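Chapter review: from sequence to fold.
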Amino acid sequence: MIKRSLLQIAEMVSAQNDISASSATVITGVSIDSRKIEAGNLFVPFKGEQADGHKYVVESIRKGAAAALWQKDVPNPPIHLPILIVEDCLTALQELAREYRKQLPVKVVGITGSNGKTTTKDMTASLLSIQYKVQKTEGNYNNHIGLPLTVLGLNEDTEIAVLEMGMSGRGEIEFLTKLALPDAVVITNIGESHLLDLGSREGIAEAKLEIFKGLKDGGLAVIHGDEPLLMERIQQYKGNVEIKTFGRNETNDLYPTEITQLDQGNRFQINVSNTTFELPVLGIHNILNALASMLIANHFAIPFEKLTNGLAGIKLTNMRMELVEGQHGEKIINDAYNASPTSMMAAIELVSNLQGYERKILVLGDMLELGPEEEQYHKQIGEALNAAKVDFLYTFGNLGALIAQGARSILGEQRVFAFTNKADLIQQLEQHVNETTLVLVKASRGMKLEEIVSKLQKK
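The token string follows.
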């Protein structure tokens, strides 16, 4: 993590007050949460509509913070304490991260996409760790606050940082990539997430392609070659960078030549190597995420043949195709972290094709931020189900009810149940599960369907 004198920090954030009395004080790390202050931290308070972090500056320094920022328009700064007065605390945090990034010799991999960016981040970090000291974005620290904090948490001897870049609107990826200055980038895919803000998949594609604006000259861009919205636009973005594609089609630089679905993952081969790879992650779509990660690792001089251990040892962030066991012996695929029509159909396809289960149950909830066509997207999910491969459907939420509506024409009234109360859903679901049952739980994060998984899980 960042370790600089207060004088150096003051220069990096353009502090407006005299700090000569404490200029030699050493800052170690940055925190925006006064409850999590560690010795030597720089505390950064934010002034919001509901709360003002400046109220906790004195307390944070008492807890061990070495110094704190203070926003210029907030009255009564405690000038007897080591504070740095700045125009805006958020801007100062971002500028501090930008300057620290420029000082580091670290290589940066930036990852964005509508679906799969966190999984691809985890995979990429695992593969690069075969040969390098790697740090990655933790949790969901992928926005205009989280990414600067991730950068400021990088150690001086970290060789490669894998940074996830999220967005909700235009210009956000451009801001993040220009701060991170990546040496390589990945666009996993273009889905339907953020249609509410961006209006169309074309708008989403253009927003994701902003990641090129911070990519260094001569860097690598890895993109989903089966996605026409990316391929149609790539020429205007490519500049002096190398483009590599991955996907199912043989027109890509990297594609799978053979896939075997396993009980808890996949086995596959690729077009550029005779090696057989095992991926302990469910879903064929996750093989594509692995291919993107493999292209990045190969760019950093790790041969494809050496990637077997890195793939086999992958640990994904929770609630992403996580296989757990329920109290009645049922197997539960917990994919409750996020959902879009693309990712939901991929998860349903996975469950439909898995062998060895006498009963398969889908528990699906609302997909959020889909814009004016959200009702149609939900109905289409239900209408696309295969009655021979799905036994029961349970839905949660008002939009989830539209999935149920679409599914009744496929599964019939007796196999479809719609709920707006989780306790009622769980009570009914438990009547249909046993050791031969597979349950998929998936919805957008805001629906908190992990609460259903927790209730079902074996204690």
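Two observations follow directly from the output. The domain at 322-456 is CATH 3.90.190.20 (Protein-Tyrosine Phosphatase; Chain A). The radius of gyration is 24 Å.
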